[in-house]
Design brief:
Elements lengths: L13 H13 L6 H13 L7 H29 L1 H7 L12 H22 L1 H18 L9 H22 L6 H21 L4 H7 L4 H5 L1 H25 L3 H21 L5 H27 L1
């Protein structure tokens, strides 16, 4: 009996949707919240945003720009630049496994760059400048010859500024000229975010050692890195509290101070978890929420 010759070609209609799905996976939606929230905080800190349809639309465009588009673009660039290392350590990932081609990577980046610059121009020339700086930092962080991620101090600074500082400033500039208080808050919360980036580095200590990435936990060991991270996070927020005490904004100072104190038990518990990866996941799920709400309180306080 002759063998069946039924066609085995996958349905053409599925391919575009799978390509879109893979591009979105490369953009890592879990990372979008931080810059989107920072943009929102900056818009509130401007004191000029209102609950009008136009302003809400501008905020929606800004959070789309900061999170899915710019942060997403930086994640795609990072995965592409890590493709050789991932081929050894994590061959199942989309690019080294061949599920996403180089062409698709560059098309995805190109689409995000065009969308990002287009939305930024709508929000204003100064927002477009912040956007362009963010795109340049994304390349500096991931790509040779600089590849700043190889050093924990430089790499974490770029990420912290890109995730917190630039989106905050862009959110403010989308509605009004910058003020001293808003710029100071963007800088201080970027400093705090540097510590959070160090905590995130605990998830990849072994991989970083193999890859030659000198993260802060790799450079100084887990205990010193943890103390460095928590001091950075807490000192940044303490200066925020001091600013609001200086400006006699007692309620805001009290709220942020209380949120800071609530983080201390979570930070102490961090040291009791044996698995470095679980430490980072635990802190991301518990401690960061209070830091994030402190950002919103600060934005309301300086408006």
């Amino acid at each position: 009996m002759p063998e069946s010759t039924a066609p085995t070609t996958p349905p053409i209609a599925v391919r575009p949707s799978m390509m879109l799905r893979h591009s979105i996976e490369l953009m890592k939606p879990v990372t979008w919240f931080a810059p989107s929230w920072a943009f929102l905080c900056g818009a509130i800190a401007s004191g000029a945003s209102q609950w009008t349809l136009v302003d809400v639309g501008r905020i929606a465009l800004g959070t789309l720009l900061a999170g899915p588009i710019l942060c997403g673009m930086s994640q795609v660039v990072n995965d592409y630049c890590d493709r050789d290392v991932d081929a050894i350590n994590e061959p199942q990932r989309l690019i080294p496994s061949g599920l996403v081609s180089t062409r698709q990577v560059f098309v995805t980046i190109g689409v995000l760059v065009v969308l990002g610059l287009g939305i930024a121009v709508i929000l204003g020339q100064q927002v477009a400048l912040m956007t362009a700086i963010g795109m340049i930092l994304a390349v500096i962080y991931s790509a040779d010859p600089i590849r700043a991620k190889r050093n924990g101090w430089a790499g974490n600074t770029i990420v912290a500024v890109s995730y917190e500082g630039l989106p905050w400033l862009a959110g403010h500039l989308a509605f009004a000229p910058l003020t001293f208080g808003s710029v100071l808050m963007a800088a201080l919360f970027s400093l705090g975010a540097h510590g959070i980036m160090t905590i995130n580095d605990f998830k990849s200590i072994e991989g970083d050692k193999v890859s030659g990435i000198h993260s802060i936990p790799v450079l100084y060991g887990e205990i010193t890195a943890a103390w460095t991270a928590f001091l950075t996070i807490n000192v940044a927020q303490a200066f925020v509290v001091m600013y609001f005490i200086f400006t006699a904004s007692w309620i805001i100072a009290g709220i942020i101070g209380a949120l800071l104190l609530m983080q201390i038990p979570t930070q102490w518990k961090f040291f009791t978890i044996a698995d470095p990866r679980k430490r980072a996941i635990f802190y991301n799920a518990s401690g960061i929420a209070m830091f994030v709400w402190g950002m919103m309180a600060a934005a309301i306080g300086v408006r």
